Amino acid sequence: MHVIAIFGPTAVGKTEVGIALAELLRKRGESPLAVSADALQLYHGLEILTGAATPAQRRLLEHRLLGILAVQDSCSAGSYAQLAHAEIDALLAAGRRPSVLGGTGLYLRAALTELQMRPPVAHEVRRRRQDQMRRLGPAALHAQLAKLAPATAAKIDPGDSQRIVRALELIDVGQTPAPARDDQLWSEQMRRPTVLIGLTMDRAQLYERIEQRIAAMLAADAAAEVARAEQAGASESVRQALGYRELLAGDVEAMRRRTRNYAKRQLTWMRKLAGIHTIDMTARTPDDAARQIATLLDAAAAERGGGG
Fold first, then answer.
1. Please, which residues bridge with residue 197 across strands?
2. Assuming Cys at both sites, which of 15, 73, 99, 162 could form a disulfide with 4, CB separation 3.0 to 4.6 Å?
3. How far, in Å, CA of 80 to CA of 84, rounded?
4. Residue 204: what pLDDT?
5. CB neighbours of 43 closer than 8 A, spacing ≥ 6?
6. What is the 3-state secondary structure of 80-145?
7. 229 by DSSP, 3-state: which?
8. 176 — phi, psi (to 5°)?
């Protein structure tokens, strides 16, 4: 049985397509279930800000790896990979269809492939560097990194606090920092037979959907959600969430800009993936996309000689 992987930029409609596909697959006698590949939806208490599947949506399609960590926790891609592999393998063993849904490229890769991920460092090492990031800010720590590993620092944006902390903590434990370029971390060799889907959309329409999503988040009081997480001692990983720092500062326009820029990077990365089947959602409904994915599944099964 093939794993389904659905990637796309924020607000493109991944959850809605996943639900429509699940309904179609159930009519065919299957038992689908979603596995989240979103770095921030792992944390409980940020459901509004991260656009996690709502309780109503989760009744239509069960999701795994949503809200499983406290906001004080941190999770590396390597740790996530272990969780995702266990979920996917157990579902396949039970005859259920896993749909990996997400917009975090590294976590999608971690779920689907056997990347050579660096092991997590000791908690106290990570906590020390995260505390420094809180006190000193990304520019100061990026300057530290530039002195210790100039080639690595040159590949990391000076404002990317998560990657800066990761590089420094690896240096602290005597490891060489991992490459910062996305295309060095992808593997075309999937752990399990996989049909990889990429959802795209006309840029203007996507940006309008982002505006609508942000408006809905604000109406649902995402700012209060962020304030609660901050009061609870949110980890540096959690503070990377789109809109987190911006809402703390009361700068909604900066939140909009950052979200649009992130969506642009997601689309750019997606175009690099070999073997991806792209579906333009500009003029398609989730049901349309679901039917196209089902057709791709059938073709993949036929190519393998049956077995889904």
1. 6, 277
2. 99
3. 6
4. 96
5. 50, 67, 69, 70, 71, 73, 238
6. HHHHHHHHHHHHHHCCCEEEEEECCHHHHHHHHECCCCCCCCCHHHHHHHHHHHHHHCHHHHHHHH
7. helix
8. -80, 130
pLDDT score for 50? 97
The pLDDT mean for the chain works out to 91
CB within 8 Å of 197: residues ≥ 6 apart: 4, 5, 6, 7, 276, 277, 278, 279, 293, 296
The highest-level CATH class for domain 123-177 is: mainly alpha
Q: What is the DSSP letter of 51?
A: T
C-alpha–C-alpha distance, residues 223 and 227, integer Å: 6
Question: CA angle 35-38-39, nearest 5°?
Answer: 130
CA distance linking residue 226 with residue 245, whole number of Å: 9
Which of the four pLDDT bands, split at 50, 70 and 90, describes residue 181? Answer: very low
pLDDT band of residue 160 (cuts 50, 70, 90) is confident
CA dist., res. 151 & res. 185, Å (int): 17
The region of weakest confidence among 8-22, 186-200, 255-269 is 186-200
For the cut 80, the answer to whether the pLDDT of residue 180 exceeds it is: no
Q: What percent of the chain has pLDDT over 70?
A: 94
Half-sphere exposure of 290 (CA within 13 A, CB side): 20
